[in-house]
Structures are given as structure tokens and as C-alpha cells.
Amino acid sequence: MSSPAADHGALEPASLAHDPLETVLRTARLARLELAPGEAERLGGQFARILDAFRVLTTLDVEGVPPMTGPTALSDVKREDRARPSLPLEEALANAPARIDAYYSVPKTVGTVGGEL
Q1: Cα 68 to the center of its chain, rounded Å
Q2: pTM for the full predicted model
Q3: What does the domain layout of the chain look like in residue ranges?
Q4: pLDDT at position 116, please?
Q5: 29, 38 contact by CB (below 8 A)
């Protein structure tokens, strides 16, 4: 049975170890990025150095080290959740690039081809 990542063409950790150039090209394809000539080779070398640094980390003994999500122990700062009046419509839409009735109107950004609308 294949993994969900393999089913969608995602990068498996084992595949990252083989060919950095192929990893860059595959990542660019998955992200729908267009690379300039020579850019993949340059990025492949950089990617290989980054992976080498991570390989060093895999050799460390982290037994007993608690997992963390960031370098500091931050907690959310929360305010009391209480109802209050909204901004008046005209004030809320004052800086809208365009509007249609009582709504913001902005250029389409998802589903465009080559950045064109």
C-alpha cells in the first residue's frame, strides 16, 4: 500500500536524499513555479547543503528533550471576548480598492494563468 504523500506526488523523506536537482525540479512542479535557466542547478546545490545540515541533526541524541514548536515558550495573549458595535459600513470600506454594494471588490488572485486575470 502506498503512502498518502506518494499518492499525491509529494516528497517522501527518502527521496530528498537522492538527487537535489530532481528534488528542486519536482518541488517547483508541485508548487507550479517556473524556474529560470540554470536556477534549478543553483538551487539544487543550495538544497544539498541544507539537507546535509539536517543530516547532522539526525545524529544528535534527543532522548528526554521535550518537543517544541518555537525557540521560546510563548502563550497566546487573549482578551475578553465581548460584543461591541462594528465599524460603520462607509468607514469599513473607506480604503477598499473597489466595492460592489456593501462588499470589497479585489482582483482575482486564485486560478489565474501567469498572473493575468
Answers
A1: 20
A2: 0.41
A3: 1-62
A4: 55
A5: no
